[in-house]
Amino acid sequence: MGTIELRNNLIDRFNRLIQDDTKLVTLEGVFDSMNTFDSSSLIPEEHYKIVEERRRKHLSGESKGKSWEEVKKGMKDKYGF
Description:
Elements: H1 3-17, H2 21-34, H3 45-60, H4 68-79
């Protein structure tokens, strides 16, 4: 598909999409996310550092973790689901 065909196809699809009011908020969110140039991520760098530290502790055995099966069993035992 060439550029002109792609542009016309997108214009047609957007025209149909904006007729549905329930999709306007979602579409606005998409456009807002595409226009965010000042940051490559909405997540602060400090959060990445916390995750890195927790991962390091997990891999080194400094912190304990549970398998998904252990978590599911605990939920079932405690809450019945």
